[in-house]
Structure formats: structure tokens, C-alpha cells
From TrEMBL:
It comes from Nostoc azollae (strain 0708). The keyword Transferase applies. SUPFAM superfamilies: Nucleotide-diphospho-sugar transferases (SSF53448). Keywords: Glycosyltransferase, Transferase. Belongs to the glycosyltransferase 2 family. Pathway: Cell wall biogenesis; cell wall polysaccharide biosynthesis. Residues 8-139, 446-621 form the Glycosyltransferase 2-like domain. This is Glycosyl transferase family 2. The keyword Glycosyltransferase applies.
Length: 754
């Protein structure tokens, strides 16, 4: 059995007790065939951390001294730089306030050993104060807020099976360095953390790794608990949040940089309007230091006070905290019970008369500050509260001043400063995203858009590709328009947005022919399709490629969900749909529904052309799209032939927003004009694939019922919903009959030839 060599890096600053608890947890880990070395990076602690470790753990732990407080980013960088030069397979990064399950390491190791596409894997992080509550299972980029969206945040009692949904791991954008296992060779190639001091250093590093083509994963079987009380962090954290997030977006997502300023504006004005200008001032300082290129530890002095618990106890008129705060079992090891009881008695919630009186005093005497803080959970961590009770924490309201004139002045000052910041950042030269060379883990993807006389829709679709995270793609537009408006628009978009577009104009309005021409022009190993009246999310390509990476070479096609944004409630049009050999379709199924990839099966996995992709080489093996399908059932036929050839079709959890627009096939979503194609292709598909699978009378009966439901009943319904004249209805029915005739004849010819 091959021995795995693992280095563990813990960064600490004046948290000796928590480091010792973590070291005890590490000694309890199950470590089959794993050799570990533990490195504690000490940011010049003054609480005796180094001497304690050297006294009690000298044979297990090596202490690396930084000489000064370099923050989390500097500490981890120091440790990574040191151990990456040594002979290790993996490196495990841990925060000093993490507690470990005895099986926390094994799932992480197994993920990296079994899935070569994964470069970094994190743990399911839970809250130490609420052991069944999830703090995060990785994060995603939130494009609307230009921030992060925590995955499964604050959810309680969620099973690992529900989290994984049949997958080996959860694919995310970012994993927190609180518990992060990484391949040593990635550190050697990618380097260490940026000098952010605190916050978003792990975000930037994960995005750097992801852009290099690696998958960022979370294995929820690995569970750790984070010592994170349910109150907001210290106000000065806002400085690092805004400054470092700006650096991160400037480097990796330039389009989100200005959006972050815009999104922050209402919040900072709100702070100023509610007597907390100091909070707005701290965030503004973060923006300004980003503009000035300041990194590392904050050099500015902050204009507020953090009160130690002792001051609050001895000066109860200064700050009031609600009395529903007491210790849990873990904290009782660190604080004597009697001390906690005494402190609780000094935390009464002031009555209404006292509050009114204090407000009156605060109006005239500014030095008195009132903080009435309400905590959501009574099991708040008293140990942390005992260290510092923050000037503004939790879900509280802290008025520094309530004079209307002063509040108005603060709002105006905040607005003016944010306006200046906006224009200063706008003038910055944003760094471009580095070009990525194609590798097996980051293949070239050919995005093919087929269009016809819808230049306005196509323009929005092309502009949406500017926000795609994955950078190794090409764009191909196949145009069946009858005018030159589309090519003129494409040229404008291409020159304006620096988007290289391969354009081809074709004559027949046949979707299968257009897609085959796009496939011929494609140079990528994966061809991806979406409609010209749809908008893909920024993570679209990554999500598709993740599924190809998870499954073996039998995976020939991957598609996702389609959502209709023109209807109330935004209903799904397609989600993990399946189709049978007659083309009867179940378009929406649950996430845990059975896959149908059996070559001889009656039902099979299908995709919707608005959100689908294929391996080009396999698509060419089956001769691409059948051009008899001019519209409707084209990708369904492809999926069935792929499965019958021994390959598989799979689904990705990625949703494309569809805005169905009028075309030569429909006036609106209910008033179709393509009845000939629907009847022709339904008949042809059923004969092509289902004729020999049963008795002929049953086949004919089933086909007629399907055409009745799919065509004739819908045509009759138009009489009542759209008040269509009888002459038009008769024409539609005649088109349907002609479609049946042509489809029948062509389908039967296939069997005669075969």
C-alpha cells in the first residue's frame, strides 16, 4: 500500500487554547496509510503559544515563526512556501478555531485520490455553537451582489445524501481555508495567497486554481466545526471585506468591481442615516485603500471604541446587552460558572423609561453611546463575548448620534465619498483575465448559436457570453436570416466587446442543418448549444464540463435545466427530462429521478436544445443531426442514437433562462405555425425508432393518439384562446395531415433500405 504524505498547516495568533484543542483533535484522527507532519505558523503570539507547543508537542509539531502578525493570508503563505518545497502529496490548511471529526481527513484524501480533475477539496463546515447547523459547504459567486453566496448556509439537519444528490462531491467556486486539502503540485505551480491580511485570500486563490482548469470541490462526508458565534464580526472587518473583494474582482471578475461599489452604496448610506457613520467610514476606507494600492494589514486608525467586558460590567449605563446570554458546555471549561452567572446579572434589558431617558441624554451629551443588542440564539459564545463586546455586533442598533442635522451631514458625506470612489475605480485599468491554454481539464468549448431573423435577441445572447467564467471557448453563429441585419449586429458586438465570432450564413431554415454546419466549423472538443432567445448563467460551461469530468468516456452529452422567464412564476420548461421511442416526453422530473441510458430501453435520457452539449468526436461518429428534423425532436433523436450506440447522456445542475420569442415557427408559445413539422417529425421519429418494438396495430393507434394530442387538440384550442378563423384552422389541420404523410413515407423508406 502506497503511503500518503500529508503536511498540516495551522495559522494562529494569540489563540493558544484553541490551537491545543485542535491538536488534540488531530491526534484522534483515523489515519490509515497516512503520514502527517503538523506545522503551526505563529504570527508572533504573545500568549505563550510557541513555548506551550514546544513543551507539550515538540515531538509532533513544528512551529514556524513569522516574526510579526501577518494575518491569515501571510501566515498561510509562509506555511505553504515552506512545505511546498518538501516531499508531500497533499497539504491541509486549517484555521486555529476549527474542531475536527475523527473521520474529517479520510473523505478529503479519497476525493483527491479518486478524482484527478479535483485540485482542491474542502469540508462541510458546521457551527460549533450549533453542531447540527451548517455554516457553509463551499460558496458560489453571487453576480447580483458582487459578493459570495454561501452554499447550504444556516441549514439544519441536512443529510449528506441530500447534499450530494448522488454525486461524489459538490462542485463549487470557492472553499474556505478553514479546512482545505490541496495537491502539493498546485501550490508549486500556482504560488501562495495574495497579501490580503484577512478575508478573501482563500477566495482569490481558489479562483486562480479554478481558472487553471481544476475543479474546486467539497466532500460533505468530511465534517468540521467552526467556532463562530452568532453575531456579526467586528466592524473593522468591513475594511478588509471591501478592499480585498475589490482586489479579487479586479483580478478575476472585472465586470463585478464597479457593481460592488454600487451594491454597497445603499448599505453605507443606511449606516450613516441611522447614526453609525463610523461603519460607513470603515468600508469607505477599504475602497480608498484599494484605489491607492494598499495591501496587507490596515494602517489607518479607526474612529470607534471596542469595549472590554469589564468596562461594560462596571459601567452598565454605557452599553446594555440583552440578558439571554449564557455559556455552553465547551465554554464552561474556560470560564468559571460563577463568573458567568455574575456577569449575566449585570446584563439586564433596560425598561422603556430607562431607554427614553438614555435617548434624551444621548441627544445632548454625545459621549454616551447606547447599544441595545439582541442575539438570535441564547447559546451565544460567552467566551468570545468575554474577550470583547463589540461596539456594533449582532442584530442590534447602535446610535452614536441621533441629531437630525448630524445624520443629514453624515448621509451627504457618505454619498459624496462613494460617488468619488465610483469614478476613481471606473478610471482604473482593470486587469484582464489571463488566457488559459487548453488542457484535458480545460478543453476548448465551441458555443454554437443558430439564429434566424432575430438580431435583437441574438445580441443579448452574445453579450451574455462576456460574463461566462470559463474562458477557453469559441463562439460560432449560424444565421438563416433573410436580411443582413444579423451579420451587421454580429460585427458590431464582435468589435465592441472584443469577442471573436465565427459567422456563417446558410439558406434553409433547418435547425439540424444549421447545427451540423456549426459542428463542422467547431474546433473544440465539446460543442455546446443554447438558443438565441436565452441567457446562460456565468457558470454554464463549467457546470457542463464538471459532469464530463465526473463520468467516464462513455459520457457523450450533458445538458441542464431550462426556465421560462416570460410566464408567471418562471416555470421550468425542462429538467432532467426523458423521452420514449414514440417521442412521448416527461419534461420535468425530480433531481433524484432514475437515469435511462440503456441501449435497448423504451425510455431514454433526453436534452433540450436550449441547454445542451456534446462531445464532438462522438457526435461525428453518429453522423451528427438527422437533417430530416427541420424543427422539433432534433436533439431528442441525437440523444437516442448516442445511447443506442453505447454512450450516455447526463444532466448538470445549471439553469438557462429562456425568453421565448416569435419566429417563423410560432407567433407565441401557444399559437404555433409549425404544424407540418410537428406532425412530420413525430411520425418519422416514431417509425424510425419504435416501429419494430411492438404490434403494428398498437403502434398505429399509439401514434394517432400522440398526434391527436400534440397537434389536432392544440389546433382546436386555438379557436377558443386566440379566436383563429375557421379557414386558418382548416389550413393547420391540412398541414398536419401532409406532415403525417411525408413523415410516414420517409420513415418507412428507412426500414425498406435497412
Amino acid at each position: 500500500m502506497k503511503i500518503t504524505k500529508l503536511a498540516i498547516i495551522i495559522v494562529t495568533w494569540n489563540k493558544m487554547n484553541q490551537v491545543c484543542l485542535l491538536l488534540k483533535d488531530l491526534n484522534k484522527l483515523e489515519l490509515p496509510d497516512i503520514n502527517i507532519d503538523i506545522y503551526v505558523v505563529d504570527n508572533a503570539s504573545t500568549d505563550g503559544t510557541q513555548s506551550y507547543i514546544e513543551k507539550y508537542y515538540s515531538d509532533q509539531v513544528k512551529v514556524l515563526q513569522t516574526g510579526s502578525n501577518l494575518g491569515g493570508s501571510g501566515g498561510f503563505s509562509c506555511g505553504l512556501q515552506f512545505v511546498s518545497k518538501l516531499d508531500y502529496n497533499y497539504i491541509w490548511l486549517l484555521d486555529d478555531d476549527i474542531r475536527l471529526d475523527s473521520l474529517a481527513l479520510i473523505p478529503l484524501i479519497n476525493t483527491l485520490q479518486n478524482y484527478e480533475e479535483v485540485g482542491v477539496v474542502g469540508s462541510q463546515i458546521r457551527k460549533l455553537q450549533k453542531p447540527n447547523a451548517i455554516q457553509e459547504i463551499g460558496s458560489f459567486i453571487n453576480n447580483k451582489k458582487a459578493h459570495l453566496k454561501v452554499n447550504f448556509g444556516n441549514q439544519v439537519n441536512i443529510s449528506t445524501e441530500d447534499i450530494l444528490q448522488g454525486k461524489p462531491y459538490v462542485n463549487v467556486d470557492i472553499c474556505a481555508a478553514a479546512s482545505l486539502l490541496v495537491r502539493c503540485k498546485i501550490v508549486q505551480n500556482m504560488g501562495v495567497f495574495e497579501d490580503y491580511f484577512l478575508h478573501f485570500d482563500d477566495v482569490e486563490w481558489c479562483l486562480r486554481v479554478k481558472q487553471a482548469g481544476w475543479v474546486i470541490a467539497v466532500n460533505p462526508h468530511s465534517i468540521v466545526w467552526h467556532d463562530s458565534p452568532d453575531f456579526k464580526s467586528r466592524p473593522w472587518m468591513n475594511y478588509y471585506d471591501e478592499r480585498n473583494l475589490c482586489y479579487c474582482w479586479q483580478k478575476h471578475r472585472p465586470e463585478l468591481l464597479l457593481k460592488r461599489v454600487v451594491v454597497s452604496f445603499p448599505r453605507l448610506v443606511y449606516y450613516a442615516a441611522t447614526g453609525r457613520y463610523f461603519l460607513a467610514e470603515i468600508s469607505i476606507a477599504g475602497f480608498q485603500d484599494f484605489i491607492n494600492g494598499v495591501q496587507g494589514k490596515m494602517l489607518r486608525k479607526i474612529n470607534y471604541t471596542e469595549y472590554p467586558l469589564g468596562e461594560i460590567i462596571h459601567e452598565p449605563a454605557k452599553v446594555f446587552v440583552q440578558s439571554s446570554i449564557y455559556q455552553d458546555e465547551f465554554q464552561s471549561q474556560n470560564l468559571k460558572k460563577i463568573e458567568v452567572d455574575e456577569k449575566v446579572t449585570f446584563w439586564p434589558l433596560p425598561n422603556k423609561f430607562s431607554r427614553i431617558w438614555l435617548w434624551i441624554i444621548a441627544w445632548f451629551w454625545k459621549p454616551i453611546d447606547i447599544a441595545i443588542v439582541t442575539y438570535q440564539h441564547p447559546t451565544l459564545d460567552v467566551l468570545n463575548l468575554a474577550k470583547w463586546v463589540y461596539y456594533f455586533t449582532g442584530n442590534g442598533y447602535v446610535p452614536v448620534v441621533i441629531n437630525p442635522l448630524v445624520l443629514t451631514k453624515a448621509v451627504m458625506k457618505t454619498s459624496n465619498e462613494m460617488w468619488q470612489i465610483y469614478w476613481q475605480i471606473r478610471k482604473l485599468k482593470l486587469s484582464s483575465i489571463p488566457e488559459i491554454m487548453p488542457t484535458p481539464l480545460s478543453p476548448l468549448v465551441s458555443i454554437i448559436l443558430c439564429t434566424s431573423n432575430r438580431p435583437n435577441c441574438l445580441e443579448k445572447a452574445l453579450q451574455s457570453l462576456e460574463l461566462i467564467h470559463y474562458q477557453n471557448f469559441e463562439v460560432i453563429v449560424i444565421d438563416a436570416s433573410s436580411t443582413n441585419q444579423t451579420i451587421e449586429m454580429v460585427n458590431q458586438v464582435s468589435s465592441k466587446n472584443n469577442l471573436k465570432i465565427n459567422f456563417l450564413q446558410v439558406e434553409p431554415k433547418n435547425i439540424s442543418y444549421s447545427r451540423n454546419m456549426g459542428i463542422k466549423l467547431a474546433t473544440g472538443s465539446i460543442v455546446a448549444f443554447f438558443d438565441d432567445d436565452a441567457i446562460p448563467p456565468s457558470e454554464w460551461i463549467e457546470k457542463l464540463l464538471d459532469i464530463y469530468a465526473i463520468h467516464d468516456e462513455k459520457c457523450a452529452a450533458v445538458g441542464g435545466t431550462v426556465r421560462d422567464l416570460t410566464r408567471p412564476g418562471y416555470p421550468l420548461q425542462f429538467h432532467r427530462g426523458i423521452t420514449n421511442l414514440f417521442s412521448e416526453t416527461i419534461a420535468i422530473r425530480s433531481a433524484d429521478a432514475t437515469n435511462y441510458n440503456q441501449a435497448n430501453g423504451l425510455w431514454f435520457n433526453g436534452l433540450m436544445g436550449t441547454n445542451c452539449s456534446f462531445r464532438k468526436d462522438i457526435l461525428e461518429k453518429i453522423n451528427g443531426y438527422d437533417e430530416f428534423f427541420d424543427y422539433f425532436l432534433d436533439e431528442t433523436d441525437v440523444c437516442l442514437r448516442l445511447i443506442q450506440a453505447g454512450y450516455e447522456v447526463h444532466y448538470a445542475d445549471v439553469v438557462i433562462d429562456h425568453y421565448p420569442q416569435p419566429s417563423h415557427n410560432r407567433i407565441d408559445q401557444k399559437h404555433l405555425t409549425c404544424w407540418y413539422s410537428l406532425a412530420k417529425n413525430t411520425t418519422y421519429f416514431a417509425i424510425k425508432h419504435g416501429l419494430t418494438r411492438g404490434l403494428f396495430p398498437i403502434f398505429v393507434t399509439r401514434l394517432l393518439l400522440l398526434i391527436t394530442y400534440r397537434c389536432w387538440l392544440r389546433i382546436i384550442r386555438l379557436k377558443f384562446t386566440h379566436h383563429i378563423p375557421n379557414s386558418v384552422l382548416i389550413k393547420y389541420i391540412q398541414q398536419t395531415i401532409e406532415g403525417i404523410r411525408v413523415g410516414w413515407k420517409s420513415g418507412m423508406n428507412l426500414h425498406q433500405v435497412n
